[in-house]
Design a protein that fits this description.
The chain is of the alpha/beta class. The protein has 3 domains: about 1-155, no CATH class; about 160-255, 3-Layer(aba) Sandwich (Rossmann fold); about 285-480, no CATH class. Helices cover about 50% and strands about 10% of the residues. The chain is built from 15 helices and 11 strands. It has helices spanning about 1-35, 40-50, 60-80, 90-115, 120-155, 165-175, 210-215, 230-245, 285-320, 350-360, 380-385, 395-400, 415, 445-460, 465-480; strands at about 160-165, 185-190, 205, 220-225, 250, 260-265, 275-280, 325-330, 340-345, 405, 430-435. A 5-stranded parallel beta sheet has the order 3-2-1-4-5, with helices on both faces. A two-stranded antiparallel ribbon has the order 6-7. Strands 8-9 form a two-stranded antiparallel ribbon. The longest helix has about 35 residues, at about 285-320. It is flat, with a radius of gyration of 30 Å. The two termini are about 55 Å apart.
Length: about 475
């Protein structure tokens, strides 16, 4: 039950933060009005700094209408920044609130531009942002500290019994202590046959065979089974005792089930047994749809901006070296799907035939082939490689859906065949035009570290991470860091 309460509390925190932001809006509006009527230093600044607008705001009706627009925008920014995670430290929370405030400001500025809301005062926007950040942080501290006081004074709470006086049981009990909004009470531990008993599994309430009588003697809200593979018939009878009494059960998965990734219970129509769905890739369809929108937008904008550069590169390739402008190569995409990747041709026509005779010069470990002074590269090719112009045609691959703006670099099928099993997981998402490898040194990083970077990206993926990588790619390309 406390898990459902946790989800509800997270949702409530977003509403609470939006209300606190609204209070900060009114406070900033009042302060801005008061300062407009003041003289002295503020008036002196207003006369000399054009953007320091401290004139009267006039009618406040449009600002009240603006607040109605801001409320849903704040809700989106709070959810995006994950400021509703009540378990993080106040330092981390301050950073997440800063991200939420900045995101809200960007959305507001977009709305001002699209709907021509030119009545909005720049100084008011700045005051509101500062007031919002301070109010959010102060409001959360007051709320959480109040909850802690009420919890300490509370005489009862969510009562939990843990079956398994072992390391897992003790670890689970410790994890419950971090659930600060709820008064969760560990009633004690119940042993199973064959356990020696953990020193910290206290108080000890008996053995699993007597669980039914234990549930009859005292109130218990939930029983956690932190055991696997020990006399399943006994565990089955203990779980049945909980079921008939209406006591919630939390069951530990077998050790054969991987502990990482996202797990969901799947029900298939026509199949009467529930299935456990395990995923190591991002699961939010809404966020993945936003990632696709980001890809399409970025690819279209990129083609419009880089169009003249691409035309110049195509002309230079055609003039200086006979042969096609584009280099087409089959690469491995998501889960090994093959697609034709596009690049500007930077090598001589027989480059693939000459690769075997240069293999002994390879400077990369693993199955990847890279040498700094590759004699197969043309003069124009060396320049477009150094500046990453040769990668620009992959914007078309992104439009076609074979690639993403950010992700692991697409590998050759021959390279994939040489991957270790753990390295193949980097192919569980779409390959990208840029990624962690490109912004972290590229050819200066060894192969295994490169592979681990890709896996870390998959495990920690978010839209914000994609945006950060895109922003880091710009200076990496301009400074030509790690490119060859």
């Amino acid at each position: 039950m406390w898990r459902q309460q946790s989800v509800f509390f997270r949702q409530t925190l977003i509403v609470y933060d939006v209300l606190v932001s609204a209070a900060a809006f009114f406070a900033a509006l009042f302060l801005r009005q008061q300062l407009a009527e003041s003289t002295g230093l503020l008036g002196w600044l207003a006369d000399r700094v054009p953007w320091f607008d401290m004139g009267t705001l006039g009618e406040l009706g449009p600002y009240y209408q603006l607040l109605l627009l801001l409320l849903p925008l704040w809700g989106v920014s709070m959810a995006w920044s994950r400021s509703n995670d009540f378990r993080v430290s106040y330092g981390t929370l301050a950073w997440r609130y800063a991200r939420a405030v900045v995101a809200g400001l960007l959305l507001l500025l977009t709305a001002v531009f699209l709907f021509k809301l030119y009545f909005v005062s720049r100084s008011f926007v700045g005051m509101m942002a500062l007031a919002q950040w301070m109010a959010l942080l102060l409001g959360r501290v007051l709320l959480m500290e109040t909850i802690k006081v009420l919890r300490r004074r509370g005489s009862d709470g969510h009562r939990v019994v843990i079956v398994g006086a072992n390391d897992r049981g003790v670890a689970f009990a410790n994890s419950l202590k971090s659930q600060s909004p709820w008064n969760i009470k560990i009633m004690g531990f119940v042993s199973v046959p064959g356990e020696s008993g953990h020193a910290k599994a206290r108080p000890h309430l008996g053995y699993v065979g007597s669980l039914a009588s234990l549930l009859d003697r005292q109130p218990v809200d939930e029983v956690v089974f932190a055991v696997t593979g020990r006399q399943p018939e006994i565990i089955r009878d203990a779980m049945a005792s909980c079921e008939v009494r209406g006591v919630d059960v939390l069951l530990n998965l077998p050790s054969t089930v991987p502990s990482k990734g996202t797990m969901q219970i799947a029900n298939i129509s026509g199949f009467d047994y529930p299935l456990l769905n395990l995923r190591r890739t991002p699961t939010s369809e809404a966020k993945l749809a936003l990632k696709r929108i980001l890809d399409l937008t970025g690819a279209i904008v990129g083609l419009l901006i880089a169009g003249p550069v691409m035309l110049a590169a195509a002309a230079a390739i055609r003039i200086t070296d006979p042969g096609p402008v584009l280099f087409r190569q089959v690469r491995a995409g998501r889960n090994g799907r093959k697609f034709t990747m596009l690049k500007f041709r930077s090598m001589v026509m027989d480059a693939e035939k000459r690769k075997a005779e240069l293999m002994h010069l390879n400077e990369m470990d693993g199955p990847v082939f890279k040498i700094k002074r590759d004699p197969r590269i043309t003069a124009v090719g060396r320049f477009i490689r150094k500046t990453s112009i040769d990668e620009l045609p992959q914007l078309l691959n992104i439009l076609m859906g074979d690639m993403s703006l950010v992700g692991p670099r697409p590998a050759l099928p021959s390279e994939v065949e040489q991957y270790k099993p753990w390295q193949r997981r980097r192919m569980s998402v779409k390959p990208g035009l840029t990624g962690m490898w490109q912004v972290s040194g590229r050819n200066q990083i060894d192969f295994e570290e490169w592979m681990q970077m890709d896996l870390d990206y998959i495990d920690n993926w978010s839209l914000w991470l994609d945006i950060k990588i895109i922003l880091k790619t710009i200076p990496a390309v301009v400074l030509r860091s790690g490119a060859s």
